């Protein structure tokens, strides 16, 4: 069983989800299942990141030409 070091004040320094994950992996799940869970988590965070990126891109309204200038012109100023 995973033993969590207690920090004064009752906080282990880990979030509830981190503690749950430690307990899950302490159950002796197979390497195959571990890899499946890692893929699920990676897919989840990829979708979250893509969603955030879409919001930023929509807000910034940069054109393709702007991106080319950003990459090639050290003096490019964003409007």
Description:
The chain is mainly alpha-helical. It has one domain (16-72). 62% of the residues lie in helices and 0% in strands. It has 3 helices and no strands. It has helices at 16-25, 31-60, 64-72. It is elongated, with a radius of gyration of 21 Å.
Can you lay out the helices and strands and say which pair or pack?
Layout: H1 16-25, H2 31-60, H3 64-72
Count the domains: 1
Helicity, as a percent range: 55-70%
Class from secondary-structure proportions: mainly alpha
Unreliable parts: none
Shape: elongated
- Average pLDDT: 84
- Kindly state the number of beta strands: 0
Structure described in brief:
With 79 residues, this protein is mainly alpha-helical. It is built from three helices and no strands.
Could you name the key traits of this structure?
mainly alpha, 62% helix, 3 helices, 79 residues, elongated, 0% strand
């Amino acid at each position: 069983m995973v033993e969590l070091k207690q920090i004064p004040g009752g906080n282990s320094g880990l979030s509830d989800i981190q503690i749950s994950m430690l307990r899950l992996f302490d159950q002796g799940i197979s390497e195959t299942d571990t890899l499946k869970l890692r893929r699920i988590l990676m897919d989840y965070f990829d979708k979250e990141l893509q969603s955030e990126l879409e919001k930023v891109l929509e807000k910034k309204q940069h054109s393709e030409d702007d991106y080319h200038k950003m990459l090639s012109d050290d003096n490019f100023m964003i409007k």
